[in-house]
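Q: what sequence does this backbone want?
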């Protein structure tokens, strides 16, 4: 009954976008005005940067003050500078890295340690009393840190932004909509609309659709950006396993302020270096006014020319566009599944003046496709269109016009760039061997005494068979087992995930396609068929193992779909 009454209250309090928004869980007057009781614990100077450790009161809980530890950094001569509140990834403790990083870029920056000892971080959000939810209190603590930023002479209180990565991106999206003092924000990997797909336990551990409705009307990060205009940039790793692509796209679509998205194909919870820089530089546009706004793109339009299908979009802005790309993702589009290992195939697009156009290869007329366009400017800033969901048959194309299988393995060449990206994405245990080559391409060397088995993600086309191809050789005669293992749908053990996914039964035993090969010092071609037999599978992982500690090399990995005729 209590939950029903609260739900009724929030439905009444949230009105149309043209009206004032009444926040159902945050008391902004208290957040902005109650005494902080600040204590500066330590202050040091590192080169020309001042770094301080502080403590303040976020709120009173059960009649006791909740004391928050924070780190703040700024140039030693700072006065009236723009400021950034940085929300920590993984809800990790505050550290010096991010305040120092932004201080060197001419900002005041602060991060804090969230009060995990009072409210447990990875338990279900409290829908019976959302004002007492763990995420609610964490957001309040961060907004109270923003209150501190507004009180010190080093900060211009009219120029405060917020950013964060992963959980930090979750809170950056939430607080940018909730706190009127925030003038711009950006997020790595995270947003709102978690009911469209997420790995976050605070959501997935809830029990019912009524809980989801309360979540959507109280704590979901996308909610408030429907009512408040604030410039925001979302960096999206297309295969992210924390917040799925549909959730982030919906967050972007719902936001009413100036906004951009950057969808990076085939990446998961990490970015190439230039995308990191693009996100960091977003603040320079709106807080420093030292950089031109990023280009804007139109919606994507799909046009048929004879028996071919094209995607077309336009762009505007002061930054010269050096390249455009069309991204096509083949296969069934479904709620809560097929996202973390989904294929995203990049095709070149032609740029003419302020328009880009690229052909969509039709591999099957009835197959579902997710299609979006990217432009890259002279500063390597990537801006994406909203993806569209189409079938070629709906445009009158009745036959395939492309027989290419496509290689869905992300790392086509084991070159220096791939080596850098392996480190960025956290793939370890390999030696990049630039001297041992196959067809002129470098190899990956594996030492089974240190890495066994090898594990590499394989992107796939949902509901299609696949074929693995690769080359292997060893230091001396040995046996190597190569397997393509199907992955189960994530989070199926949570009832609410099964409900939202409309999953009526548990997965069957998942297939593993495995063969053992004898290899020696000569390159050996490996091929494994991976038929599709109607399981609900999220994707595949390539596993390579050896029972002997004999070093071996792998080269030219190909994972290709088998199209229906």
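A:
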């Amino acid at each position: 009954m209590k939950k029903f009454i609260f739900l009724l209250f929030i439905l009444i309090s949230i009105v149309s976008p043209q009206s004032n928004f009444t926040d159902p869980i945050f008391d902004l007057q208290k957040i902005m005005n109650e005494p902080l009781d600040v204590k500066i614990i330590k202050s040091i100077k590192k080169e020309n940067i001042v770094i301080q450790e502080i403590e303040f009161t976020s709120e009173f809980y059960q009649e006791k003050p909740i004391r928050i530890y924070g780190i703040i950094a700024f140039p030693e001569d700072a006065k009236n500078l723009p400021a950034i509140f940085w929300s920590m990834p993984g809800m990790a403790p505050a550290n010096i890295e991010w305040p120092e990083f932004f201080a060197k870029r001419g900002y005041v920056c602060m991060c804090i340690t969230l009060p995990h000892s009072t409210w447990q971080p990875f338990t279900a959000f409290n829908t019976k009393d959302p004002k007492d939810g763990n995420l609610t209190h964490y957001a309040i603590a961060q907004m109270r840190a923003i209150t501190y930023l507004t009180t010190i002479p080093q900060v211009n209180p009219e120029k405060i932004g917020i950013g964060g990565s992963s959980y930090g991106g979750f809170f950056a999206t939430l607080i940018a909509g909730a706190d009127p003092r925030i003038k711009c924000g950006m997020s790595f990997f995270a947003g709102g609309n978690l009911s469209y797909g997420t790995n976050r336990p605070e959501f997935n551990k809830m029990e019912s659709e009524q809980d989801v409705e309360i979540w959507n009307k109280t704590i979901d990060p996308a909610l408030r950006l429907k009512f408040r205009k604030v410039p925001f940039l979302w960096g999206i790793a297309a295969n992210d396993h924390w917040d799925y692509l549909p959730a982030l796209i919906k967050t972007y679509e719902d936001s009413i302020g100036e906004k951009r998205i950057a969808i990076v194909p085939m990446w998961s919870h990490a970015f190439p270096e230039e995308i990191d820089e693009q996100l960091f530089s977003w603040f320079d546009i709106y807080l420093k006014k030292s950089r031109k706004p990023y280009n804007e793109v139109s919606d994507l339009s799909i046009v048929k020319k004879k028996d071919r299908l094209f995607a077309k979009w336009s762009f505007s802005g002061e930054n010269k566009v050096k390249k455009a790309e069309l991204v096509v993702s083949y296969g069934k589009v479904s709620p809560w599944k097929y996202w973390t290992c989904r294929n995203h195939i990049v095709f070149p697009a032609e740029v003419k003046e302020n328009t880009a156009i690229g052909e969509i290869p039709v591999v099957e007329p009835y197959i579902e496709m997710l299609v979006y366009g990217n432009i890259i400017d002279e500063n390597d800033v990537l801006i994406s269109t909203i993806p569209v969901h189409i079938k070629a048959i709906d445009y009158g194309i009745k036959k395939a016009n492309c027989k290419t299988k496509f290689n869905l393995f992300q790392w086509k060449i084991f070159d220096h760039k791939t080596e850098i990206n392996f480190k960025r994405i956290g793939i370890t245990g390999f030696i990049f061997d630039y001297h041992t080559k196959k067809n002129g391409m470098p190899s990956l060397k594996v030492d089974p005494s240190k890495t066994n088995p090898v594990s590499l993600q394989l992107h796939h086309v949902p509901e299609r068979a696949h074929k693995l191809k690769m080359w292997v050789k060893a230091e001396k005669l040995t046996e190597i087992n190569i397997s393509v293992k199907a992955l189960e749908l994530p989070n199926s053990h949570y009832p609410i995930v099964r409900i939202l996914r409309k999953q009526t039964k548990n997965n069957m035993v998942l297939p593993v396609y495995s063969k053992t090969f004898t290899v020696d010092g000569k390159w050996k071609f490996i091929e494994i068929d991976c038929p599709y037999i109607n399981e609900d599978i999220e994707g595949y992982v390539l596993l390579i193992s050896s029972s002997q500690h004999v070093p071996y090399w792998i080269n030219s990995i190909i994972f290709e779909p088998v199209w229906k005729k």
